[in-house]
Amino acid sequence: MAIYIVPENPMTVPNTPRLLNLDILRLISALMVLAFHYGFRMRISGEGGGLGFPELAPFAMWFDAGLLIFFAISGYVIAMSAEGRSAYDFAAGRFARLWPTFIACATITAVVLSMWHVPTLDPPTVRQWLAHAVIISRGLGQPFLDGAYWTIAYEIIFYFWVFVLIAIGLFDRGWRVLVLAWLALSVANETLIGSGAVQKLLITEYSGYFAFGLTLYKTQRDWSPANLCVLALAACWATVTPFLTEPDFVEMYGLVRNVEGLALIGPVSLGIMAICATAPSLRISPALAIGLGGLTYPLYLLHQNIGYAVFARFGTEQNRWLVAFVLVALLLLVSLAIARTIEPRARRAIVRAAGHIKEGWGRLRQRTA
């Protein structure tokens, strides 16, 4: 999404040139999701006041693949970020990356939706906005301010499990068994058990993508038959799951996508991500690539409901393309401003505070030992 998530200092990680490819891919994936919402979903849902881009729909309806690419990238990058770190440092780094930008974007979204109404949505309330302080506002009984936030919830669940595994010392030495168990439970739940709680807690619909990214990174570090088998199994499950989630797509949009496309969407998403993660870096300035990748997270958080509000308030059949161009340009500029100002300053402050807390805790333990 987080797929929109990068290591704390990407230029200090081994093999970082390959991460430049992932930075570019993250932005492309975010733009794919944006195109899915504006070019396909908006007209069907009515959230844009009846406007849409039917000429884009035959292609845009497949661009939810951007989410699958996001999840695979997240598995890869989080495996890298977790390597050699304590559970505390991992959690502090993730919080510093995720929370400040999320709060800034949720606040901007709340303000915009308070001024410009989105058809089919209730105006935001102060209580709803405050609930986003914990990011997963649904845990406090409040709906998300933006429909895209559900993927952030899945990212946090994934981070939580990685944190637990680091804390108990199994992330490095027991990861293969754990990934296989995760995939097995996912298959069992999606095909036999059907538990909604298990689906949310273990991300069983999308576990193949997270597991593929994680295993790909581990396989790059240790090229072994066992790792390749786990990678293949993750890819197989990722290939199957679009068929299992498709009934929800049909129910929501009243449209049946062809079998060939569903068979390809998983492998193509994984293949693109794997090529970008393993191929030599594109000939691009590292600062430019990292800067473009930095736009991804705020752009993803801002685009959906703010976009619908703008189309509903200002769009007509005659000016919809102009509105789309201006809207995307403004979203990119605001995302750039957040990525260059709010995000790094807040992250540094949180990391410093986390370091002071860690030092204080260490001194306290020494005194009581």
What this model shows, in words?
The protein is an all-alpha fold. It has one domain (10-368). The protein is built from 14 helices and no strands. The chain has helices at 17-45, 57-60, 65-82, 87-115, 126-131, 150-167, 175-193, 196-202, 207-221, 225-253, 259-278, 286-294, 296-314, 320-368. Helix 1 runs parallel beside helix 12 and helix 10 (225-253) packs across helix 11 (259-278). The longest helix has 49 residues, at 320-368. The protein starts with 16 loop residues before the first helix and ends with a helix. Residues 1-16 have low confidence and may be disordered.
User: In percent, how helical is the residue content?
Assistant: over 70%
Give the amount of beta strand, in percent: under 5%
- Rounded average pLDDT: 91
Structural class: mainly alpha
Q: Radius of gyration, rounded?
A: 21 Å
Taken together, the total number of domains comes to 1
Uncertain segments are: 1-16
Major sheet, described briefly?
none
Spatial gap, N to C terminus: 43 Å
What is the N-to-C succession of helices and strands? HHHHHHHHHHHHHH
Present the secondary structure layout.
Layout: H1 17-45, H2 57-60, H3 65-82, H4 87-115, H5 126-131, H6 150-167, H7 175-193, H8 196-202, H9 207-221, H10 225-253, H11 259-278, H12 286-294, H13 296-314, H14 320-368
Helix pairs in contact: 1-3, 1-11, 1-12, 1-13, 3-6, 3-9, 3-11, 4-6, 4-13, 4-14, 7-9, 7-10, 9-10, 9-11, 10-11, 13-14
Brief sketch in words of this structure:
The chain has helices at residues 17-45, 57-60, 65-82, 87-115, 126-131, 150-167, 175-193, 196-202, 207-221, 225-253, 259-278, 286-294, 296-314, 320-368.
